[in-house]
Design a protein that fits this description.
Blueprint: H1 3-8, H2 16-25, E1 26-31, E2 37-41, E3 47-50, H3 62-68, H4 76-79
Antiparallel strand pairs: 1-2, 2-3
Length: 128
């Protein structure tokens, strides 16, 4: 994306205004596994993230989510226990993508569903 795209768009990375503010007034605190960078104002009252790619809040790691909302002071390594072997990595919201969950019977999977079993009886206003 060119310089004009950076000036006028907000959905793919930081706008030029946010990038300049981060450079002038922000203090880099850390980054996560996806390459998102986290900043804090010099007085510590404001915290923000510059995404590495599309701006999607589900791409913020759970560790950093608490820091962004002021639940924790310090970076996540300073207050979280080590990752356990049974924990899985967080996954971005896949709604609207080709990898989204589509249950049987949904229009995206052809719209055919299994017939209802015999225990279902449709309601009718004429029946009493």
């Amino acid at each position: 994306m060119g310089i004009l795209g950076k000036i006028f768009t907000w959905w793919d990375g930081a706008t030029i205004g946010t990038a300049i503010y981060s450079w002038r007034k922000g203090k880099a605190v850390g980054s996560d596994a996806e390459g998102n960078k986290y900043y804090q104002s010099s007085d510590g009252k404001r915290r923000w993230v510059i995404y590495n790619g599309a701006n999607d809040a589900s791409r913020v790691a759970p560790d950093w989510h608490g820091w962004l909302h002021g639940t924790h002071d310090g970076d996540p390594e300073s207050y979280l226990p080590p990752v356990r072997g049974y924990e899985t990595l967080p996954e971005a919201n896949l709604t609207g993508t080709d990898r989204a969950y589509r249950p049987a019977g949904s229009i995206q999977r052809g719209g055919h569903r299994a017939r209802a079993t015999g225990d279902y009886e449709a309601w009718s206003p004429d029946a009493s």
